């Protein structure tokens, strides 16, 4: 479609270019396609970014741990994106043997992961039973045991959807 006052060598904007080529339909199609491509890229990056972010441990001190703004004064278990208090009742019968309530396979352990980070206390005094370690090995779960402050740092830096954690917040 030729306009007598239109100079094809001076294109002021995208609309002039498309009018010159008679491509209004294609212009709309291209605009929608570009918008969808940008949305898909932004959405994809946001999804990957959110996937990387798990519960964030903000602070840890003897007897207290703060996760995502919530203060806990008991040992905690992080399973995926959920945080709960550790229920160590099933391990209490073994307390006399270890002089401390150990971490045993009898508790509600978040086994549905590839890596289980365990903070074994500020002074590394939480016993982890051999049976617990054997169950982890049998399930194909890699255990990372370290002092709780080190475990928290490791967890925060390396979180993935395949990682769970147990943090003992005292001795």
Keywords:
171 residues, alpha/beta, Hypothetical Protein Mth938, Chain: A, five-stranded mixed β-sheet, three-stranded antiparallel β-sheet, 5 helices, 8 strands, 20% strand
Please give a quick description of this structure.
With 171 residues, this protein is of the alpha/beta class. It is built from five helices and eight strands, in the order ααβββββαβαβαβ. The strands form two sheets. It has a five-stranded mixed sheet, sandwiched between helices. The protein has a three-stranded antiparallel sheet with strand order 1-2-3, with helices on one face.
- Unreliable runs: none
Structural class: alpha/beta
Overall pLDDT confidence: 85
What is the CATH topology assignment of the largest domain? Hypothetical Protein Mth938, Chain: A
Percent helix among the residues? 25-40%
Largest sheet: 5 strands, mixed
> How many distinct beta strands?
8
Q: Report the CATH C-level class of the largest domain.
A: Alpha Beta
Write out the CATH superfamily name of the largest domain: MTH938-like
Radius of gyration: 28 Å
What form results from the Cα inertia axes?
elongated
Helix and strand pattern: HHEEEEEHEHEHE
How many structural domains does the protein architecture include? 2
Q: How are the strands ordered across the major sheet?
A: 5-4-8-6-7
CATH architecture of the largest domain: 3-Layer(aba) Sandwich
Q: How much of the polypeptide forms β-strand, as a percent range?
A: 15-25%
Distance between the termini: 83 Å
How many separate helices?
Answer: 5
